[in-house]
Each structure stands twice: as structure tokens, then as C-alpha cells.
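Provenance

Sequences were taken from public entries as deposited. Structures were produced by running a predictor on each sequence independently, with no templates supplied. The record for Putative secreted protein from Aureimonas pseudogalii is shown for reference.
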Amino acid sequence: MGIVTGIAIYFVIWWTVLFAVLPIGMRSQIDEGEVVLGTAHSAPARFRFWRIVAMNTLAASAVFALFYVVTEIVGVGPGSFPHIVPGT
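Predicted structure for Putative secreted protein:
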């Protein structure tokens, strides 16, 4: 895997993992009992941007490391599986 391919795959993994990390530890305004007028009740009471970025980067790095080990060290890739259509 080249450096550009690795960066592209990490970028895709980072954005995908972001949607799994966003709700972790989130407390809505209704949970806190302090609803700001003009906002949705489900809006976060305190949005901790840097905490989410740090957690997401750690999780994405772990997923990318697992991907790297499976594809580069173990050698499992798309060519490792049998073809669905014979002769292709």
C-alpha cells in the first residue's frame, strides 16, 4: 500500500468512525434541564469538539491498524476470495 492510498483509506475510515463516536457521552439540553430558547430539545448541552476529535482519531487509528495488519501482513484481500462468476 502506498502512502497516498493509506492516507485516503484512513480519511474514509476517520469519517465513517465519526458517526459512531458522535453520540458517545452526549447529553441533550433536555437531559441537563437547560433548554435554550429557539433550539431543539435534543441539541447537545455542551458540544466538546476536541474531545470528539481525539476519541475519533484514536478509534479510527485502531481500525486502520487492524485493516493494515489484515491486508498487508496477513495478506487477505479481494483476490483471496473465490470468484462468484467462474472464469473472471
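The chain has one domain: 3-77.
The radius of gyration is 20 Å.
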